[in-house]
Specification:
about 30% helix; two-stranded antiparallel sheet
Length: about 180
């Protein structure tokens, strides 16, 4: 079974990782948190420790269905600096596979020139890293194989967009209803 992978680095934004994780699991998707730190315990931007499901080193590219990058600082810059993740992102971009990021993390794709000519959103001030993208400032932006979110307030909408991409709109409505989103 293909897996949605949410990559965690020291300083990740907890709400942007855990709310989409919760939404996608409620929708029946196989979602794993993946630590890029070499340790399964990863501390978020607000000192909330999270135990990841697996280490990056144990990941097999062929098992990954979607890459999800939460924002937060220094989480997003730590993800940006990870060589193995860089290689995986390049492979996904070449194959037009789903790439998602929220808050500061869209800069990881933007700095690699992957958002050129695409509508994109991110945390205000990080748009300077979205090389060649059309910054919209929308809460969520879906363009081709990219799903991008603006920040913590967009975490739920971002999660529903991820779920919709892989499980369809009927599943999104079912999960929204169960979570009392109107």
């Amino acid at each position: 079974m293909k897996t949605v992978c949410i990559f965690l680095a020291e300083g990740f934004e907890e709400s942007e990782a855990l709310l989409p994780l919760d939404i996608m699991r409620r929708g029946g998707l196989d979602v794993k948190t993946v630590s890029v730190t070499g340790d399964k315990a990863v501390k978020g931007a607000h000192a909330v420790p999270v135990v990841a499901d697996m280490l990056f080193e144990d990941l097999k590219e062929e098992d990954v269905e979607m890459i999800v990058l939460p924002g937060g600082l220094p989480g997003a810059t730590n993800l940006d600096a990870h060589a193995g993740l860089d290689k995986l992102i390049g492979s996904f971009a070449s194959a037009q596979k789903p790439l998602a990021a929220i808050c500061a993390a869209p800069m990881v794709y933007g700095r690699r020139g992957l958002l050129k000519g695409k509508k994109a959103t991110c945390y205000p001030g990080f748009d300077k890293y979205l090389e060649g993208a059309e910054y919209t400032g929308n809460m969520v932006e879906v363009c081709d194989n990219f799903i991008l979110g603006k920040g913590p307030a967009a975490a739920a909408e971002f999660g529903f967009a991820l779920l919709g991409k892989l499980a369809g709109e009927a599943k999104v409505q079912e999960v929204k209803s169960g979570m009392l989103f109107v």
